[in-house]
């Protein structure tokens, strides 16, 4: 699977560990930055690039998901969700990570590197990457409602 990564300075060290872990598991990892530790970096650009690449790859039929990492993961999630067609979920344990895939067909998981021990953060990402979307009709319907709103800017009631 192709895995796109984006991070801020607070997640930089974990991103490097995660990248090695994912590559050793056979994933094709694309690092959109940060490429060096810089406490003044502007992480939205890195997270938006990762999300754009996931959406683009999936539209082209490529098996791709993404991970955005920050101190809390909140800002990174917000940045990635600005990309049209992207569904990014902030996960704080493996079960939430699985549910984001099963129920919401999230394509990107946000992780707070300062909120978890390294092994726990890796478990959150591994659970996300391993879990398929359920394809259940009620979940498809709800995702469709969100997609239509994103396209049309109004909710059909």
TrEMBL record:
Keyword Isomerase: yes
InterPro entries noted in UniProt: Rib-5-P_Isoase_Actino, RpiB_LacA_LacB, RpiB_LacA_LacB_sf
GO molecular function: isomerase activity
Cited SUPFAM superfamilies: Ribose/Galactose isomerase RpiB/AlsB
Pathway(s): Carbohydrate degradation; pentose phosphate pathway; D-ribose 5-phosphate from D-ribulose 5-phosphate (non-oxidative stage): step 1/1
Claim: Nucleotide-binding is one of the keywords in the record: no
Keywords tagged on the record: Isomerase
Superkingdom per UniProt: Bacteria
E.C. number: 5.3.1.6
Reactions the enzyme catalyzes: aldehydo-D-ribose 5-phosphate = D-ribulose 5-phosphate
EC top class, as a word: isomerase
PANTHER family per record: DNA DAMAGE-REPAIR_TOLERATION PROTEIN DRT102 (PTHR30345:SF0), RIBOSE-5-PHOSPHATE ISOMERASE B (PTHR30345)
Family indicated by similarity: Belongs to the LacAB/RpiB family.
Record text on subunit structure and interactions: Homodimer.
The protein's name: Ribose-5-phosphate isomerase B
Lineage of source species: Bacteria, Bacillati, Actinomycetota, Actinomycetes, Micrococcales
